[in-house]
Amino acid sequence: MNQSKRIAIIGAGYAGLSAAVELTRAGLDVTVFEASRVMGGRARVVEKDGYRLDNGQHILLGAYTETLKLLRFLKVNPKRLLSLPFVLHVPGRLTLRAANLPAPFHLAVALLRSKELTWADRFAALRLIRFLKKCDYTLNADYPVSELLDRTRQTPLLRELMWNQLCVAALNTPPEQASAQVFAHVLRDSVGASATASEMLIPRVDLTELLPVQAGIYLGMNGTVIHTACPIKRVREENGVFALEGDPAGTSRYSHVIVATAPYHVSSLLGDFAELTYLRGQIDALVHEPITTVYLAYDEHLSLPEPMIQISGSIVQWLFDKGQSTGEKGLLAGVISASGPHTELSREEIALQAHQAVEALFPRLKAPRWSQVITERRATFACRPGIIRPLPITPVKNLFLAGDYVDSPYPATIEAAVCAGLNAARQVLRTTGEDPKPA
Ligand SMILES: Cc1cc2nc3c(=O)[nH]c(=O)nc-3n(C[C@H](O)[C@H](O)[C@H](O)COP(=O)(O)OP(=O)(O)OC[C@H]3O[C@@H](n4cnc5c(N)ncnc54)[C@H](O)[C@@H]3O)c2cc1C
Predict the structure, then answer these.
(1) pLDDT higher than threshold 90 for residue 421
(2) What is the Cα–Cα distance from 331 to 298, expressed in whole angstroms?
């Protein structure tokens, strides 16, 4: 272990843990500080009434290259992710199922096979993909997704059931406010790429178990300490090294610090650095969007036609059948991304409307025996056109940022967080002269 360099990582979400694994692999002396008792941050387990739930139902994509590589490195069994070919199923309205063929035929055949689409819909979808391919998925200026849909003359059906839903699901931002450029990147690396990249991966275990626990085992076995329930209040610089207010080893000093918290926790941590005033302003200017997950427990015989379906005409946008992913039969998770009229509703009203959406699929369904509504008010930043995201390097030497909000072609996702963690770690390695180890 290189003992002359000591690295502190603040935050044990997916970004902080990715950075910790990368630096530990390189043989550096790393310490992780996590405010909560549970690792995982915005992708973590929550215990409620005997259920182990996630703070929000997540899906990953086959295009999450770095996340999947990290899971393989940590020897996470691939069966912990239920892998489904790209499918959009809106009961009674649309079924679009990718064929088991190389790109772009997997999608072309899906469009051809879908009985609900007219030729006008199919041509419009191909027009959008062709438009993006022609500019190599790089727009000459950024503008809202709704404008991209106007420019490529998307039909009302495609807008309602496909593009708007994919935009809100991926960018957590309504199409009228969402960045067409980031949406183009998402389409390039998912449905526009190989059939494997467009696969939808639903965790079969909770989100803390999926990666954080496995990362914790690896880190522990390799001498990296993780302090949980240990909020850091402030980072200070003294004679070219860093001290952390809140560090249980009060006199410890660190050669490098990676701040891997959510963006809204950065400013107070770095308030002492006058040279970071501009950066703090940039991060504080990010606007945030909520995500609500509604869990409904029904009789164990209740099962959806697919592990994940889309809902139209309800505040709930997607329904997940936990029975088909985690084995919790009869348990459904409804997802409501981004802000909208539901933001004003009480939890009881949200649970009722979610139940009504399920009842529309199963007439005369009894009320759920248990429900839980979890709203993350600042789930992700609003991914708007021309948004400015900070770089991992800061004006303070050896102080770095990691997190889903850091500069990336992707919206705030697990993959963006993992990539940002790895990037920050590689910046540290560059300054210490260690070579990143091949995965
Ligand atoms: C409800 C919901 C649904 C989502 N759905 C999806 C999805 O389907 N697919 C997808 O890819 N992404 C999804 N996301 C986004 C994804 O969860 C995030 O992008 C990702 O988890 C962010 O990871 P992070 O490490 O950057 O930040 P965080 O997860 O926020 O981690 C930061 C960590 O820092 C800790 N911390 C903060 N302050 C301090 C301090 N002072 N001292 C010590 N520790 C501190 C926090 O406790 C936290 O553990 C969803 C997010 C939410 C909330």
Answers:
(1) yes
(2) 6
